[in-house]
Specification:
By secondary structure, this protein is of the alpha/beta class. The protein has helices spanning about 10-15, 20-25, 70-85, 100, 110, 115-120, 140-150, 175-185, 200-210, 220-230, 240-245, 265, 280-285, and strands at about 1-5, 30-35, 55, 90-95, 155-160, 190-195, 210-215, 230-235, 255-260, 275-280. Helix 7 packs across helix 10 (about 220-230). The longest helix is centred in the first third of the chain and has 13 residues, at about 70-85.
Length: about 290
């Protein structure tokens, strides 16, 4: 059986749908699984042992000569008929929440989350053959990348922070970081911001508090290794939260998630047992009181 799974991203949606590939491989060991995604997201499934082939469509012809790229949502609709017409596959699955819920005026996390959509819309999957947990496998280079960064850290404890400047899924901002700095001031803790650039406000905080500030700009997947090496994780409802929910990451890690409300990152992952969800600054301050 040849199966094509289609998910154009972003990183979090792709990760959260990887259990489908694992399910089919465990249920039908001889099946061949192809995953179609955008070129920029290939890395998140490049080492997945349950995926045999990765396809990336040529996107230029979709945009009529403009340099404005289609959003991931639009990709699904632009290519839907073209993909459905492929004859070499026995099964083609579009695994993304917006494929079914894009026309809804209000997003209901209990009805339209990726996990719920997959479990209810893919009706041929009656029972999963595996835990419904994102699958991630790191290359030796990705592991080395994180370890090389980690070895130069000096603090008694390491706190990895998912820093997402533009997410509307979290209220996390400078005030949360400053509350954390007040709690750990003078205790020789390392704060590690994961992202391409250090947050602008770090310079100000560095002058006010005795905290070791670092920025980790390694590859996306290598953050999973850094997560396992760190003592505490603070997530902000974005791609890195999905990554750290994966089967590669330590389930016992102390972690705090800052969300605006119910969200896939806050209620779908009971396997992360030492996890506290914070919906406000006050809840966050209470949660970090004993770190």
């Amino acid at each position: 059986m040849k199966i094509l799974l289609v998910n154009f991203g972003a990183f979090g949606d792709i990760l959260n749908s990887t259990p489908i590939a694992k399910h089919y491989k465990l249920s039908f060991p001889d099946c061949h699984i192809t995953w179609m995604t955008r070129e920029k997201y290939k890395s998140v499934i490049a080492n997945n042992p349950y995926i045999d082939k990765i396809l990336t469509p040529k996107e230029n012809h979709l945009f009529h000569g403009t340099d404005l790229g289609a959003r991931n949502v639009e990709m699904t609709f632009l290519l839907r008929n073209e993909i459905a017409a492929l004859k070499e596959y026995d099964k083609i699955l579009f695994i993304a929440p917006y494929y079914w819920s894009l026309t809804n005026t209000e997003f209901d996390v209990n009805k339209h989350s990726l996990l719920h959509i997959i479990k209810t819309k893919l009706t041929d999957i009656k029972e999963f053959a595996c835990e419904f947990i994102p699958v991630i496998h790191l290359s030796d280079e990705e592991k080395k990348e994180a370890k090389s960064f980690y070895i130069n850290l000096t603090g008694n404890k390491k706190i990895l922070i998912e820093h997402e400047n533009f997410s509307n899924q979290t209220p996390f901002n400078k005030t949360f970081i400053e509350a954390l700095c007040k709690q750990i001031d003078g205790k020789n803790y390392d704060l590690i911001f994961s992202g391409k650039q250090e947050p602008e406000y770090v310079k100000e905080l560095r002058d006010k508090y005795k905290v070791n500030f670092y920025n980790y700009s390694g590859s996306f997947a290598s953050n999973a290794e850094l997560y396992n090496l760190s003592d505490i994780f603070i997530g902000c409802c974005s791609g890195l939260t999905c990554l750290t929910h994966s089967d590669y990451c330590d389930r016992n890690k102390t972690r705090f998630e800052v969300a605006r409300g119910k969200h896939w990152s806050s209620h779908e992952w009971p396997h992360m047992i030492n996890k506290k969800i914070c919906y406000s600054l006050d809840e966050f301050i209470i949660a970090i009181g004993n770190i």
